[in-house]
Amino acid sequence: MIQIQEFIILVFIVTIILLCICILLLLNKKGNHSQRLRISRLLITDEFDIILLDYNNLEIRLTPLPKAVYILFLRHPEGIKFKTLPSYKNELLEIYKYVTNKDSLPELVESIKSVTDPLSNSINEKCSRIREAFVSELNGDIAQHYYITGLRGEDKKIVLNRRTVQLPQIIERIPRTNI
Questions:
Q1: Distance, first Cα to last Cα, the chain
Q2: Residues 58 and 28 in one domain
Q3: For the segment 150-176, what is each residue's pLDDT rounded down to a tens digit?
Q4: What are the CA-CA distances from residue 147 to residues 127, 132, 171 (Å)?
Q5: H/E segment holding residue 21
Q6: How far apart are CA 17 and CA 51, in angstroms?
Q7: Are both 133 and 52 inside the same structural domain?
Q8: Which residue would you say has higher pLDDT here, 85 or 2?
Q9: Which domain does 16 fall in, by range?
Q10: Do residues 148 and 93 both lie within one domain?
Q11: Could you tell me the CA-to-CA distances from 156 to 63, 97, 162 in Å, in that order?
């Protein structure tokens, strides 16, 4: 009888110790994220890498078309309504020409035509890829400053303060669409 009681007490103590270790690990993990609670400066390099400078030069990886869409929205802090995307076709194409390694102009034009078509779901897919890229690397409260957000039918925008964003000069030279 005493051996069973001793065994139960031992199991209880081991369980408490394991629980404490789990709590400490969770607190430590949150502690590591707390260093990222500050909004970082964002750099788009001349090679079009997306770098969060204050997060130890963390690179956010995107394929070329979502990256071009991201840069378009960074250039328009006022926001863009999806239904007006056809008006941004030329600006987005110019950005995409720099960002992609594709040489076929008809292929580039077709990609841009699809993503700027308000009847297509392509722009929503690209925005989802952008969101996923940031959420996979950052705390959700921080990530929301970097991806494209907005209510249905309203302007979509990146809420990041543009004083913290640096774009390559070649992108800055592309004429902005004004609507």
A1: 84
A2: no
A3: 999 899 999 999 999 999 999 999 999
A4: 8, 9, 19
A5: helix 2-34
A6: 41
A7: yes
A8: 85
A9: 1-34
A10: yes
A11: 20, 23, 15
